[in-house]
Amino acid sequence: MGKFSRDKGARGERQLVADLREVFPEFEVKRGLGQARGGEEVPDIAGIPNWHIESKCGKKQNPRAALAQAIAQAKEGYTPVAVVRDDHKEPFALLLWEDFLQVLKCLDWKKYNERTITVRSRRGRKILPGSAAT
Hints:
This protein is of the alpha+beta class and 134 residues long. It is 35% helix and 23% strand. The protein has a domain of 93 residues: Trna Endonuclease, Chain: A, domain 1 (3-Layer(aba) Sandwich), CATH 3.40.1350.
């Protein structure tokens, strides 16, 4: 992998970290660099308890391969997630259906449906779809 591709991946990871810090200021979200002691892989994005987040940025990424990597590297009890961003596109997240159902079970639906949350995107700030604007 060339320097340009590595730099693009690092920029993508830094943006994901910034987004997650905005949503979860109580966690110490950071880029997971290299390998942990003992040789096991660390996630690209660390600091969200019990989540293994892999990030892929580039021209044409393979979402299934990214999720397979997250699954293979996630520690026991961690939810594997792949965040993929093709060049000049918005990022999207993938997780296993079973894990998605568990996330849905944890939502407070009343609060979720009444929420007003703004997030940064490459096009500026926006209110999440389905949220109530005030």
